[in-house]
UniProtKB/TrEMBL annotation:
InterPro entries: Aminoglycoside_PTrfase, DnaJ_domain, J_dom_sf, Kinase-like_dom_sf, Pre-mRNA-splicing_ERAD. Gene3D superfamilies: 3.90.1200.10, DnaJ domain. This is J domain-containing protein. Keywords: Chaperone, Coiled coil, Cytoplasm, Nucleus. Residues 244-271 form a coiled coil. GO terms for cellular component: cytoplasm; spliceosomal complex. Its main location: cytoplasm. Transmembrane segments: none annotated. Residues 140-154, 163-186 have a biased composition (Basic and acidic residues).
Length: 681
């Protein structure tokens, strides 16, 4: 018997309330000792035991005898039982002594008390069950979060393994190419004629230093070709072996010089430069940042001291490409530290939401504290800069990749496909405004832009050029935007400098700088797609689309339509693409129609002050919009959508959307018309 059973007092009170005579049940009197009670219980329950009764075993009766023994054997429970029974008997005697009217009143009062007690007991039981269910729900939610984290870790490890495997395959191919070139260089003499050339694509005007002289790469190649022809001429003329040997040595020397030039060029374009000019450029960027926000450049010393304290003595290196809104230093190969003024602070809730929705594409961010700053020509400002610790996103920015000589259409194709995954993931986590939300959906918190859409649309009415008709179209859809369109968690500054990519493949590795991230209408951030489809001209005054931008658009919309659809695209309502087009126009107007001016969003762009921005605004608004697919195209996409669910599960709730390989690489031959041209994707 468990004397510490906390339920025994409750059982004692319940039995007394139900007027169950436990002494009579066990066949003992009220003065029986604990030993007598146990002995009587053994006799009374001999035939009730499961081993004895077998098929006739009565569980409820057995439980009643067990409880009777436990209650009468426990001093506290027995005292409660006896006290309750005495009170019950006294009340019964008093009631019997009452006249008829008072007895009726007492019975009604007791019945009401009993009903209230039963109701309270039922409510307590319901509360206990509700609490238990909530505990189970929380445990299940924690289990699902743990499984999701484990799945993401496995996916990241798989991606790392895949990248490593690709790197090894690439090295083997290069080695095989070098061996093949060396083998082909073996001529009749059977001797190698120098290292392999042409493994690296070098610009013809690349300058090569040879001793005290310099030559351009194309001149070296011409010298080698002339030397090779000279060897052939000597062999045909049957000249002496010494002359032939000298000509072959000349060919080998030129091959060696070309190979060294190629190796040097590859190192220059793939490895970071650390010469004085780049250091000067970085320092200039950093000084400009502090002056731009009103601080003395000497504030950098305080920032570097803070970084040194965090890194515990390890060298902290300023990032080669500094952002407009922060000063960034590398603590290690895996972590960076960012110093931001108050006007460009990061919202930690925004960072958490972005990480939950887009997974490893968003760096983990931690708030580290503040740093005092020296005002330009003024006093020290307390806690002027806020410090954040972030994970390093692998790869380089798209802005940097564009200046690499090997940037090609292949890089753009891979990046466009990954961006379609990102937009589809954002759509799957979208939420409806409160007026259109169904029961049970959690209301989202609107950010700076989301709360001021009406005011910004009013400001945009000041645009007087051809873009004014687009402003009017969006204003007519204002009610639809505010109440019917889904809102998605959006990166507020989707430009090439904030898009991190793999320099070898162009695949997306992450999105950085979520300072302006917030919930916005579906399609608002599609202005960022236009930024990826071209780049600013060399004079910095215009923006030019790539030659393959029509194909890239078709690839994006095919993939996005398949990934975003919750049912086969052939059944998807046409209002979906209408909402996307409306959101796209709204985003272009907000981001390219209103001047930034260091955060002062109080005027529209003008031709005399914002030449590039006004050019982008008109170019993006006039670019091909998301298409209305015909029935044949929608049927093709529906086939791809179905194959996706045969080979892969839908996009994860916290990771990047994943499409079946068959839908990504093979089954994509459909036709889209953009600007009167047919584009096969």
């Amino acid at each position: 018997m468990d004397d510490s059973n906390p339920d025994l007092p409750r059982f004692a009170a319940e039995y007394a309330e139900k007027e169950i005579d436990l002494f009579d049940l066990l066949g003992v009197d009220a003065l029986a000792s604990k030993k007598d009670i146990h002995r009587s219980w053994r006799k009374r329950t001999l035939n009730l035991h499961p081993d004895k009764a077998k098929a006739n075993f009565d569980a409820s009766k057995w439980e009643l005898f067990e409880r009777a023994r436990e209650v009468l054997s426990d001093p506290n429970a027995r005292a409660i039982y006896e006290s309750s029974m005495k009170s019950k008997l006294l009340r019964k005697q008093e009631r019997d002594a009452m006249d008829q009217e008072r007895k009726k009143f007492a019975d009604e009062l007791e019945a009401a008390e009993n009903a209230h007690r039963v109701k309270q007991q039922a409510q307590d039981q319901q509360d206990r069950e509700t609490l238990q269910k909530e505990r189970e729900r929380l445990a299940e939610a924690q289990r699902m979060r743990d499984e999701e984290r484990k799945r993401q870790a496995e996916a990241e490890q798989t991606m790392d393994d895949l990248a490593e495997a690709k790197r090894r395959i690439k090295e083997r191919k290069e080695e095989k190419a070098r061996k093949k070139q060396a083998k082909e260089s073996m001529k009749a003499s059977g001797q190698p004629k120098g290292p392999a050339n042409g493994v690296v694509l070098v610009p013809g005007d690349y300058v090569v230093e040879i001793g005290t002289t310099t030559k351009q790469y194309w001149e070296l190649v011409c010298d080698k070709l002339r030397a090779v022809q000279a060897v052939k001429n000597i062999n045909q003329e049957d000249a002496g072996s010494d002359q032939s040997r000298k000509a072959e040595l000349q060919v080998q020397e030129l091959r060696r010089q070309i190979a060294e030039a190629e190796t040097k060029y590859r190192q220059e374009v793939t490895a970071p430069r650390a010469d004085e000019s780049i250091h000067a450029s970085i320092n200039h960027q950093i000084d400009d940042f502090f002056v731009r926000i009103g601080f003395d450049p000497q504030t950098r010393i305080a920032c570097d001291s803070f970084a040194a304290s965090v890194s515990r003595g390890r060298e902290c290196i300023p990032a080669q490409h500094q952002g407009y809104c922060s000063y960034t230093v590398f603590l290690s190969a895996r972590h960076i530290l960012q110093f931001r003024p108050v006007q460009f602070m990061l919202d930690m809730q925004v960072c958490r939401e972005a990480r939950e929705i887009y997974g490893a594409l968003v760096p983990t961010t931690s708030y580290m504290g503040t740093v005092d700053a020296q005002e330009l020509g003024g006093p020290t400002i307390r806690e002027a800069l806020h410090v954040y610790l972030q994970d390093v996103i692998p790869g380089i920015s798209l802005e940097a990749l564009r200046h690499m000589p090997y940037f090609s259409s292949k890089h753009r194709r891979n990046l466009i496909g990954d961006l379609a995954d990102v937009f589809a993931t954002g759509f799957h986590h979208g939420k409806l405004p409160r007026s259109a939300a169904k029961g049970g959906q959690i209301e989202f918190s609107r950010g700076i832009v989301g709360r001021s859409l009406a005011g910004r649309l009013s400001l945009l009415q000041a645009l007087s050029g051809p873009e004014s008709k687009y402003v009017e179209q969006v204003r007519q859809q204002a009610e639809v935007i505010e109440s019917k369109m889904p809102w998605c968690f959006t990166h507020g500054d989707l430009v090439p400098a904030n898009i991190m990519v793999n320099p070898d493949t162009g695949h997306l590795t992450g999105l950085i700088d979520w300072a302006e991230g917030e919930w916005l209408p579906l399609g608002t951030s599609l202005y960022g797609l236009e930024e990826v489809l071209g780049q600013v001209s060399s004079d910095g005054k215009t923006f030019e689309y790539y030659e393959d931008h029509l194909y890239l658009r078709a690839r994006f919309w095919n993939r996005f339509t398949v990934l975003a659809a919750s049912s086969p695209p052939v059944f998807q309502p046409r209002s979906f693409m209408e909402h996307v087009r409306t959101g796209r126009t709204l985003g272009i107007l907000l981001w390219r129609g209103i001047a930034f001016d260091d955060g002062k969003i109080d005027r529209v762009v003008s031709e005399d002050r914002d030449e590039l921005e006004i050019f982008k605004l008109r170019l993006f608004l006039g670019a091909p919009t998301p298409p209305d697919f015909n029935w044949r195209h929608r049927a093709w996409l529906s086939c791809i959508w179905l194959l996706r669910f045969v080979f892969h599960r839908p996009p994860s709730a916290k990771g990047k959307a994943v499409e079946a390989k068959v839908a990504k690489d093979n089954v994509t031959k459909v036709e889209i018309k953009y600007g009167g041209k047919s584009v096969d994707d």
